[in-house]
Amino acid sequence: MTDNRHLLEYSIPQLLRWRVKTSPNRPALREKDFGIWNTYTWQDYYDHVRKTALGLRAIGLGKGSTIALISDNIPEILFVAIGAHSIGAVSAGIYQTSMPHEIAQILQSLKVTAVFCDNQEQVDKVLEVRDQIPNVQRVIFEDPRGMRGYRSDDWFIDIRELYRLGDLEHAKNPALFESLVDQGRPDDVCHLCLTSGTTGLPKGTMLTHKNYINMGVQLTEVDPLEPTDEYVSFLPFAWIGEQMNSFGVAMAAGITLNFPESVETAMSDLKEIGPHFMFGAPRIYETIRSQIWLKIDQSYWLNKLLYNYFIKIGIKAAQYRMRGKSMPLGLKITSWLGKQFIFRPLVNQIGFLRLRRAYTGGAALGPELFTFYQAIGVNLKQIYGQTEIVGIAYMHRDGDIRPETVGKPLPGTRCKISEIGEILSQSDSVTPGYFELPEKSAELLEGGWLHSGDAGFIDEHGHLVVIDRISDVMHNKKGDMFSPMFLENALKFSPYIKEAVIYGNKEDFVACLINVDPIVVGKWAEDRGISFTTYMDLSGKPEVAELIMEQVIDVNSRAEKEHFKIKRFALLYKLLDVDDGELTKTGKIRRKYVQERYQNLYEALYDETVDKKDVEASFQYQDGQSTKVKTTIAFYTVKGV
Fold this sequence. Notes:
Elements (H helix, E strand, L loop, with lengths): L11 H11 L4 E7 L2 E6 H17 L7 E5 L4 H12 L3 E4 L6 H10 L4 E4 L2 H9 L9 E4 L14 E3 H14 L3 H7 L6 E6 L9 E5 H14 L7 E3 L7 H14 L2 E4 L6 H8 L3 E4 L1 H16 L3 H23 L5 H21 L7 E4 L6 H9 L4 E5 L9 E2 L12 E2 L4 E4 L4 E5 L6 E2 L3 H7 L5 E9 L5 E6 L4 E2 L5 E2 L1 H9 L4 E7 L6 E7 L1 H10 L7 H5 L2 H16 L8 E6 L19 H7 L1 H7 L6 E9 L5 E12 L4
Helix pairs in contact: 1-2, 1-9, 2-3, 2-6, 8-9, 12-13, 12-14
């Protein structure tokens, strides 16, 4: 195994330069454009960073400047970010789905001096709040389509013009860029990463070059990668989950980053590349699993029969494989047959055939879903961390996968559990704090440990078990503790349930609001001749309620304790949505906000005399417009509770 710890001595631009010296002609980046994959070698990568850096310097950026990135995943987002790092400036990612008022708040709170946008849509958002962001001096755009009318305003600059300015600077002073790169230090702050914002406005987490590189080095020490390995960059760049691969893993291991043609084509482009490792939020794996089940449901009866037989075999085999134990010969043979004739073609269809490891993080994933992927031959493993420790601090090892845990600490990461049960960590990847929030930073790093805000414990195998957010752990009226997240994940393992919100704190029983999966339940309804028009109509069907009742009863049948059982539920008339503020940008439930928004439904869940309620449904669209619709919600009491 290669020892890469010497890489911790570099800044990200210095590590990029080192990659050029060791493998200048290897593919570093690949982008699909108009159906063709275009390649940038490590030398090309460095050359683009150089001219971007000097171009940024030419328009007034330097040490103390911050440039915001509002863009889909394209090579230019890295050219601009690492170009900024090269001249001592700091980058900051903003989600492309952010509304103009959100962008204005973030640009002001992070004291941003320039913004990079990939297209007119994002430029227009910034333009809409121009009078609210006096600190922003320039807006750089990559895609010139629709930008002709903006060219007379020198607030805007085409990235090609930025390159030209950078090349002019380099021609005047060929040694300038190298001297600027030399000035970087591993402990310099290079990026401000927004927290998920589950409890309020996102905070700017200060992350250093060393934070990112250390995470990449330690991850690849546990799961080595080859320089020829491929990764598909499809997660939002503003999320730490993408940055840790683009800044950390890619630089530490020298792998190739592949950028899809668009967000819409990401999964089909992933199939073309066939990555060797993958990282995704639980929602991605839940969606893929639903698609697999849909394919099986639409298949011939013989395929269904074989699938149902071999998935049981695969689950048995997975129990041995996850624990690193040898299988009985008969099981080994039958599981091999299932893999070759059923699961291998299935895995190939979703682009996972070359996948050696898949990781999930950002939220908990139910143990059943882990076992499902392991059963079909996808080596899915849980990771755990947070923005403030560069996304990954704990992970499963091959042959030691326990679905109910998040694995063991990465090398160099220390863990302890506080007196109140909070998970505390120490590592070279821990943030120095939040941008211009000294009191919050002091709370976060009290006593020299990173305070996660999560409750957990270390089991007898040395694995970390995460229970829930400390603030989210609930107690019923009798004082019995339960985790809403655990119950929500149990419900979401059903292919018919997309989202669930559990209630029951200081109440007599557990209740929940449920979102049905529109694709899977829609297909189920069509197969049975149940007509519907909208999601609201589908959710209101009594037949759908009976289907979900079966799923809830199944979850209750597996509940370890009586107070874990769900007694009442209702099917929500709309999908929980980021645009409505009900989910964070990474898909986590904003629990307090959801309860406040649906307070009338919450009250009805706990009034057992109510079986129906008229409500006025409010919908918020991406363009900021809203509409209201009247509907009737039914409330159901679960049998046997």
